[in-house]
Fold:
Amino acid sequence: MPGLAVAPDMTTPFAELAASTPLQAGILASPTGQLLAALVAAAIVIVLGKFVLKLAWRLVTIGIV
Structure:
């Protein structure tokens, strides 16, 4: 693109802003919100793990028969 000039220091503030914005706003800003997010993540892992193990046992049972 002719006529487009980018100074070396033009992207630095945007990169810093993009890195810090998710940590400043929203439910993860407080320790209670972080605890809630961790509990939700653990619940998702448990539910998916139960599903995968159930499927694995079915495959083992089918393989034995």
Remarks:
- The chain has a mean pLDDT of 81.
